Amino acid sequence: MLRKLLIALVLLLVAFAAVAYWALYVNYPKPQIASNAGKPVPDFTLPDQDGKPLTLSALRGQPVVLIFYRGYW
């Protein structure tokens, strides 16, 4: 009886490992574009907190932190 229970447990673990492998590696979405890490950011102009236009190239040589968010949700 114990032997059958142990065999069933091992088969269950093997099945779980196979499903986990398939879910994590086989069905994992592939990146659609290459990373742009380390490349310059394209220049753009957006309004600042006072509504005045601010161009990214005007801040060249200074540390810049860009924060993007969806807005209201």
Question: Can I get a quick summary?
Answer:
With about 70 residues, this protein is mostly helical. It has 1 helix and 2 strands; from the N terminus they run αββ.
Record keyword descriptors for this entry.
2 strands; 34% helix; 1 helix; 73 residues; mainly alpha
Describe the protein in words.
The chain is mainly alpha-helical and 73 residues long. Helices cover 34% and strands 8% of the residues. It contains one helix and two strands, in the order αββ. The protein has one helix at 2-26; strands spanning 45-47, 53-55. It has a two-stranded antiparallel sheet. The mean pLDDT is 83.
Helix content: 25-40%
Q: Strand share of the residues?
A: 5-15%
Instruction: List the secondary-structure elements in sequence, H or E.
Output: HEE
Ends apart, CA distance between termini: 57 Å
Number of strands: 2
Detail the poorly predicted runs: none
Q: Major β-sheet, in short?
A: 2 strands, antiparallel
Shape: rod-shaped
> Whole-number average pLDDT?
83
Q: Give the helix/strand class.
A: mainly alpha
Describe the protein's topology.
Elements (H helix, E strand, L loop, with lengths): L1 H25 L18 E3 L5 E3 L18
Antiparallel strand pairs: 1-2
